[in-house]
Every structure is written in C-alpha cells, then in structure tokens.
Design brief:
alpha/beta, Rossmann fold, transmembrane helix, S-adenosylmethionine-dependent methyltransferase activity
Length: 428
C-alpha cells in the first residue's frame, strides 16, 4: 500500500491541478500557433492569371485549414475532458478535495453522468452572440444542489439501456425543488402490450386501455381500480376524476349562478373565437381541456402523478399534459395566452409569497384582455379578507365576476370559504 510519505507525495492538491490545467492550455495554444503559422509562404508573381490561381489556391488551403482546425479543436476538447476526469479520479483516490469555488454550489465534486449532464459544455463553434457565451449550460433546478446524493442515484443507469423504474422517486425530487431534473441517456420503460390510442374526438371521453400505462409506481394496477376507488372510502388526489362517466361528464357545462361557472358563459365574455389557447393549472385528468377542445380552444394541463397516471391519462385522451409542479415558473412567453384556469390547486395550502409570485406569473403569461378563471379557491374567512383579496387586487386584475360561498365539507365551525372569480388582465 505504501508509506504515508508516498501517499502524500502522490496527492494532487487543488492548486496544483489548476496550474496543470493552465499549463495544458498554454501548450495547446502554442501548438495551434505553430500549426497555423509554420506553413509554406506563397510568393505572388507574374500576371493576373497567376495571382488568381494563387488566390484560389490560398482560399482552398484556408478552407482546408479551418476544417482541420475544427477537428483539432474537437480532439483537444475531448482530451481536456478525459484529462479533467483523470485528475478528478486521482484526486478522489488520494483524498484531494476540490475548492468550494470550483463546486458551483454542489456539496461534493460531481462525477459520472451527473457531471456530464450538469455541464457546462464548450460550444463547438466558439462564442455565440445569441447566448452571450462560449459555453452551453444545461437547465437544472438550483435546489438540486441540496440533494446531490439523491440526484446521483437518479443519474445512475447504464447509458443507452432501459432507465430504472423510478417515477415516484423522480417526482419527489421535483417537488423538493429539483426541477427541472437533468436529462438522462437511458430509455424509458415502455408499457407492455401497448396499442394505438383511440382517435379523436372519441378519445376525449373513452377510458384508455390498461396497456397504455406503466403501472409500477401506483397502488392501482389498472383503470378499473382507479375508477372504483373514487367510490370507496379514503382520500386520494382528484378522487373521482378517472371516472369519465361520473361527475367529470358534467363539469363546467351548467352555470348555476353561484360558485360553479359555466364554460360557455365564461367564453361569452370575449368576442367569439378570440379565446384560442390556454392553460389549466393542476388539470387533474384533463376534463377542463377536453371541454375546451370541443369549443375549439387548445389548453395545456399541468398535473402531477400523485398515485395515479394523470399525465398518461390526459395524453391518451388526445390532450396535452405538462408534468410540472405548482412552484414551477410557467413555461410560456409573456403576453401569449388567452385564458388560464385553476381549480382547487391555487389555494391557501401554498405559502403566501409563493402564491403571490404565482399570481403575478399568471398575469405575465396572459395577453392583454386575457382571462384568469380562479375556480373554487379555498381559505378561511379571516384569510380571504385580510390576505387574499388584497393580494389579488395588488396584482391588478379586473374583476368580471366574483362569488364567495361557504365550504362546508369539514363543518361550518371551520369557517372555510370558497372564492370563484373571473378576472381579466387589463388591456393597457
């Protein structure tokens, strides 16, 4: 194994590794300089024909040199990456610790697939004016740095082979703020016996085949179980929303004049055909989007898979699911959506500041004149008047419709209330 002095002699301190990298960079630069400026010099003599031939020849050689330069640069980058990995491994084996400034907020030095996924990576063509840098930084939630051990587990797989069946584990990382997760170089598990989905519009109200889902992550192993558990005792997220022949079939069709707004009445507040695209935050099994599609409106539904295949179910209906949490910045450009809807999800279970940021984010993505349908927002009576009404007013929406009503499912003594509101982003 060697003496303590021998181990110490082999140890590579951080400052030595940094100096070695600089030395390699200098050597590489000098080699490139020698390569490009040691070529033959061409004397231009004779008439214009000779000059033209020499210019064409020079142009051809320059083009060839550029290609060789690109190839050489790629080889140097590959060699640099291998050298860096080698130095990291040597440092790990001999007890070397990277300086905190080199870790970019990570508790420990990144290794393996996680290091490759986190980047950054040098752009093959150098500095890019649109990006403002010569590096590409893969998108990764900053909170991922707090869960490096779990993220390393998530990124442990065989490249090019089947991914681990870890949907629940991955979603928990997302809910901790590690969102988006890094990309992986493995293949998702495919459902066994998968068949083509039903065609539109029949697919909007047809329960998908069980073979459209990988059921490993869920207590239920088929859609029949999901439909029937809504009729049983116990609480589940979106308890009966997989039953398309039950309450889902009548949602948003009628306007009772109270908390339940009718979809047609909401759309009638705008000139016909001007509500075209929208978002449903916490869209459950996608019924709001289905009803909107029947009216010519395309709606994206954000949803999480809380012990049920919500994303797969929405997709099987021929609709667009988006697997992001309520804390995620809405992935749409400013002033683009005609309508945003949210039922139950944006409510008092969310920390007040987080909710206020979310409301401003809704305002941001709505176009001027766009609609925000806040559907059955729930809170206590004290919170409604002291916190949430002032919060909504601060954001600056116009109130087109505003209805409050008691929430009685847990008893009148709880003093819980619902708010349903149709809000509008001002035109100016």
């Amino acid at each position: 194994m060697g003496s303590a002095e021998e181990k110490k002699a082999w140890r590579l301190p951080v400052f030595f590794r940094s100096k070695l990298k600089v030395l390699l960079l200098v050597v590489s630069t000098n080699l490139l300089s020698v390569y490009f400026f040691s070529g033959a010099n061409y004397a231009i003599v004779g008439g214009s024909d000779v000059l033209t031939r020499e210019l064409n020849s020079t142009r051809l050689k320059l083009s060839e040199s550029r290609e060789e330069h690109a190839q050489l640069r790629r080889r140097l980058e590959t060699a640099s990456g291998l050298l860096e990995a080698l130095l990291s491994e040597l440092g790990r084996r001999h007890g070397d610790q990277a300086a905190s400034d080199d870790l970019d907020g990570w508790p420990d030095e990144l290794l393996g697939e996680l290091k490759l996924a986190a980047g950054p990576h040098k752009l093959p063509l150098g500095y890019n004016h649109n990006l403002g840098t010569d590096e590409l930084f893969p998108t990764l939630g900053f909170a991922c740095r707090r869960f490096q051990e779990e993220l390393t587990r998530y990124m442990s797989y065989e490249v090019g082979k089947e991914c681990p069946s870890d949907g629940v584990f991955a979603q928990r990382l997302m809910l901790k703020g590690c969102e988006p997760l890094p990309r992986r170089r493995c293949l998702p598990v495919s459902p066994k016996g998968y068949v083509e989905p039903a065609a539109l519009p029949e697919s909007l109200w047809a329960t998908p085949p069980d073979t459209s889902v990988v059921w490993d992550a869920y207590a239920c192993k088929n859609y029949s179980c999901l439909v029937n558990r809504g009729r049983g005792r116990g609480s589940h997220d979106c308890n009966d929303c997989f039953n398309l022949k039950g309450r889902e079939k009548s949602r948003w069709l009628a306007d009772g004049g109270g908390l339940d707004f009718g979809m047609d009445g909401v759309l009638a507040t705008k000139p016909k055909g001007t509500v075209r695209i929208g978002l449903d935050i916490g869209g459950g099994s996608g019924t709001f989007a289905a009803r909107m599609r029947e009216r010519g409106v395309t709606v994206v539904s954000t949803t999480m898979d809380f012990d049920g295949p919500f994303n797969s179910f929405i997709a099987s209906r021929g609709l667009l699911p988006m697997h992001i949490s309520v804390a995620h910045r809405l992935p749409f450009f400013d002033n683009t959506l005609d309508i945003v809807h949210s039922m139950h999800v944006l409510s008092n279970w969310i920390p007040e500041l987080v909710l206020e940021f979310a409301l401003y984010d809704v305002y941001r993505v709505l176009r001027p004149g766009g609609l925000f349908w806040l559907d059955h927002f729930f809170c206590t009576g004290e919170q409604l008047n002291a916190t949430y009404v002032p919060m909504i007013e601060r954001v600056g929406f116009n109130k087109l419709r505003w209805v409050t009503g008691r929430k009685l499912d847990r008893g009148i003594e709880k003093n819980e209330w619902y708010l349903s509101a149709l809000l509008e982003r001002p035109m100016t």
